[in-house]
Amino acid sequence: MATEPTGLVLTVPDDGRGLAGDGSDGLGLASMRVRAEDLGGRFRAGPGPGGRGTVVTATLPLPAASATSALPVRAGGTMTSLRVLVCDDHDGFRASLVGLLATVPDVEVVGEAQDGRAAVALALATQPDVVLMDLAMPGMDGVEATRRILADAPHVGVVVLTMIEDDDSVFAAMKAGARSYLLEGARRAESLRAVTAVANGDAIFGAAIAARLVGYFSMPRRPLGAEAFPELSPRQVEILARMARHESNPEIARRLGITEKTVRNNVSAILTKLCVRDRAEAIAAAHTAHLRPSVPGEVSDHPQPRS
Q1: Which of 41, 53, 124, 246 could form a disulfide with 15 if both were Cys (CB 3.0 to 4.6 A apart)?
Q2: May I ask the CATH class of domain 80-218?
């Protein structure tokens, strides 16, 4: 017994004498044929290899329950087709995904996008149940596209399907709201399972990504706050914390009672010590460490970054 994309194929051979004289099916074979055809399938009975015995083959469509049981449930309890948007800048791979989805009953591909901006526009226009999202796309990457889609359409489930598997990309996609992360080498069945699962609010991760998640959460926790930056002086830690609140150099100078030149010199030293390219990367490091200003008695007029 084997499963094919077109349905279930059941083959039963025997090593007997073969079909009786006039070649008619007989009562048993006739009953099998009727049952197969009632299910929308095909039935064949004929001689086995070399004319020895009989081989009976029934090809049946997959049961309707298994094809639709994972479909999203709408208001009122009714189930409708699962609507999918496919986003990938590689024409051949995108076409293969569309072809794969076309083999699944009750799945409708509502659009295709070649870049992140088109993905956002199509998602908001078509309101799909699931978006299959690549990460490395021109113009706007998949992480930012995911963030923008979910900001306006939080009901959409995003399945990341990409060749990128570094930790930063995985966690950036999760923070943006993706509920599944698979690598492009994932098996066809795994990709389809992720689409239907995410449509129903579940989260699915490929084996390689799941292993990374387990490894990440089993690592010793990094120190938070000022302890995360032992290379910085207390003054530099305070300035970095205020940079993370998006205070300008003049604002920092005013709050700390120092000159703007002193602030600029310290900002330059912070970038050098943290080995970051610019102010934005330094701010990102401060947010990761949950760094906060420590001026006694001061009430912040900026919201603190959330973890």
Answers
A1: 53
A2: alpha beta
